[in-house]
């Protein structure tokens, strides 16, 4: 049975402890076997193994122990989940990529080499990343470290760690940022809501807005932290199923994914499943003479919202954003100029763009050529 594995992360004093308790209670009542993977760093610090204080340890060495323990704890949880007959939900109190926020790039690359993994390998361990903003961002009056003896950050340090932790996860396909513009209870409810959506359980449809850009201020954009991905994908159809085969590249690393979409008769829902594949399977399933979509994707956070900017080979620029609440207005980055809202325009879907590229092979779209 499919096991969902979720990371609950964020800055110090963000509400993780409360959220974890609510998650365990909520989904246990719904019949899930909920496994909470504790924060590895807190375990080590509580045992006297720490990168601060009188018996200080080098931070890179400490993070090596954290990663090793985290991997073991997650592996134990996965083994336990496999023996369950009921559906299982693994929730990690921080994920391995959190550790990237505490070391410099050189030390991080050394850690990747030591554990024989890539950044993609670490991202692929998890289905969903939920990042809770620290109370030091917008709710300073509630900032406290009384509930965690392993933490010593000042509000300023908490804000810095919060941002670095979020940046470590940029590029993951499912990152949800939950800020402090709502009440604390609404913040916790938002966490639960995002997990329901990840489990594909009945819940209000996720809102996603898409915009066609007329201009992009590259110099301003370069002032923010982003992850750059190179994407190539093609689509096949068989027996009522549409499968998107995708190659994702980042800094010399590559991963291959197959995403299958199928309409059902249950409330007219569309089921989407995703799996990792090999490069061999990716190229073997590519139809002859097909032209894949090729685009560069920039993933970044702006005003507690997660954006994806796609720039296609032909110059087409599309910006997507998923607001954290239905009533929350979208705050667009100041380095983009919007030509129009294309949220409901089917011509700007990836499938439409793909079929237009291959209209001589699969005549799915009558006409499509957006003006940049």
UniProtKB/TrEMBL annotation:
A Pfam family matched in the record: AAA_28
Origin: domain of life: Bacteria
GO molecular function: GTP binding; phosphatidic acid binding; phosphatidylinositol binding
Cited InterPro entries: CYTH-like_dom_sf (IPR033469), NadR/Ttd14_AAA_dom (IPR038727), P-loop_NTPase (IPR027417), TRPL-trafficking_regulator (IPR053227)
Span of domain NadR/Ttd14 AAA: 5-182
Listed name of the protein: AAA family ATPase
